[in-house]
């Protein structure tokens, strides 16, 4: 009788723990829906195998940033390949893109989303915002030389992911996708 009662109590305790954990968990769909790149956000987060990161804005930002790093590495490799094959006016914009991407890739690896709060809000937004500007700067280098960019789609995809990260940080801090500053 004692063993049966203890087993029942243990089963109820385990079930309650699971219910409490589920009620505290964040549905990433709700966060992604509030960004301007909902479908991209959802598809990136869903594709990531780290389910433990999908339950908080911090984890969602980590997943999106890790995807941004993967895309940035692929874009940097493409830029490098283009630099090896290119001559003439396109070399200037490619050099600019290469320099910008090198800095951004380094910066992206250092983003810490362990704690998202008002104390780290401003530096984190500044750093992610700076990284989000890199694809546009790369595109601008091509426009400056009146050359069509071979990286437009890849740059746009990367920028959209980083904008979603910024929006989630803003949603977490001030419940709006635009900056809380000012």
TrEMBL record:
One of its GO terms (molecular function) is enzyme inhibitor activity. Residues 1-25 form the signal peptide. Pfam families: PMEI (PF04043). Residues 23-168 form the Pectinesterase inhibitor domain. CDD domains: PMEI_like. Keywords: Disulfide bond, Signal. It comes from the Eukaryota. InterPro entries: Invertase/methylesterase_inhib, Pectinesterase_inhib_dom. SUPFAM superfamilies: Plant invertase/pectin methylesterase inhibitor. Gene3D superfamilies: Invertase/pectin methylesterase inhibitor family protein. NCBIfam families: PME_inhib. Belongs to the PMEI family. This is Pectinesterase inhibitor domain-containing protein. It comes from Buddleja alternifolia.
């Amino acid at each position: 009788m004692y063993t049966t009662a203890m087993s029942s109590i243990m089963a109820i305790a385990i079930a309650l723990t699971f219910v409490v954990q589920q009620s505290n968990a964040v549905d990433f769909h709700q966060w992604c829906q509030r960004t301007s790149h909902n479908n991209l956000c959802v598809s990136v987060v869903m594709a990531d195998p780290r389910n433990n990161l999908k339950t908080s804005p911090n984890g969602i930002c980590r997943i999106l940033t890790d995807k941004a790093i993967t895309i940035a590495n692929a874009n940097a490799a493409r830029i490098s390949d283009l630099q090896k094959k290119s001559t003439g006016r396109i070399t200037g914009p490619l050099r600019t893109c290469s320099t910008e991407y090198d800095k951004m890739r380094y910066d992206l690896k250092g983003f810490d989303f362990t704690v998202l709060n008002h104390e780290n809000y401003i530096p984190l937004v500044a750093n992610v915002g700076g990284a989000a500007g890199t694809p546009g700067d790369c595109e601008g280098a091509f426009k400056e030389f009146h050359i069509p960019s071979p990286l437009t789609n890849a740059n746009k995809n990367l920028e959209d992911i980083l904008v979603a990260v910024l929006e989630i940080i803003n949603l977490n801090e001030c419940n709006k996708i635009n900056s809380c500053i000012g």
